[in-house]
Amino acid sequence: MKRWFLVAILFCMPAWAAVIKLYLKDGTYQLAREYQVVEDRVKFYSTDRGEWEEIPLDLVDLKKTEKEIKEREEEVREDTKANAEEDKAERAAAREIAKVPHEPGAYYAPGGGAIQPMKVGEAKVNDNKRRSVLKVLSPVPMVSGKATLEMDGLHSPFVLNNPMPEFYLRMSDEERFGMVKMAAPHKGNRVVEKITIVPVTKEVVEEPDIVPTFHSQAGEGMYKIWPQKPLEPGEYAVVEYTEGKVNMQIWDFSIGSGSPVPPKTEKH
């Protein structure tokens, strides 16, 4: 009857304990599913032979056996905790993604708060002779030489005090995207990027100051993007563009001087 009880315990044991090493003092071990000390003997169920066996207690290294079992228990507890935390984070991310509107555009995710739509900014191409509003569907005629892509004013009205902001970008077309830091102001306006139009070939060379970022796909045509390290106070923008076509869509923001937060690692 006792043996039947021990076998019943065997099938209720957790996965980590399905096979244990019952260490002997000569350095060898027996693979077992269960063991118990009965007076001067150790009874164990051998997984090699599929039956109960006994061995003298003075031949068994119980300390080493119990130490390994406890270490495996701790590993399982840590793995279980990590998996639970990961599942919790994934559920929270799924809830956040579900709040992002379906319309193409950029959205600020404050973390736990409401998703905030960002207003696409108006940019102008300044070639030192004229200043023309950039229109994505009908690009501004470009002349050879240097130019800048600018936004009116020294500061964005969309001010954030979090130097590690996160954004969702839902795109209507498959294009490049990222985050840029605006250059020093030019005649009272923010410079999004410098542009060079090569003579004869009319090749367009764009020179944005790209901010190193992480990004993860959050759905079809939608990505989450955030900086690799805290942003210094200044003027920035989330952008979507086709390289060499000067068709940049810009969602500008300012980073204020709020309290810094630790860097966020990459999401898988």
Contiguous uncertain segments of 5+ residues:
1-16, 259-268
Count the domains: 2
Broad shape: rod-shaped
> Total strand count, please?
19
Q: Proportion of β residues?
A: 35-45%
Name the helicity range. Answer: 10-25%
Structural class of the helix and strand makeup? Answer: alpha+beta
- Looking at how many chains there are and whether they match, the oligomeric state comes to single chain
Question: Quick gist of this model?
Answer:
The protein is built from two helices and 19 strands. It is of the alpha+beta class and 268 residues long.
Report on the structure:
This protein has 268 residues and is of the alpha+beta class. The protein folds into two domains: 2-92, Roll (SH3 type barrels); 103-255, no CATH class. 18% of the residues lie in helices and 40% in strands. It is built from two helices and 19 strands. The chain has helices at 2-12, 62-98; strands at residues 20-23, 29-38, 41-46, 51-56, 105-109, 116-117, 123-126, 131-133, 145-151, 159-160, 166-170, 176-181, 183-186, 189-197, 204-208, 213-219, 222-227, 234-241, 249-255. The strands form four sheets. Strands 7, 8, 9, 13, 14 and 15 form a six-stranded antiparallel β-sheet that branches. A five-stranded antiparallel β-sheet has the order 6-5-11-17-16, with no helix packed on it. It is rod-shaped, with a radius of gyration of 32 Å. The two termini are 52 Å apart.
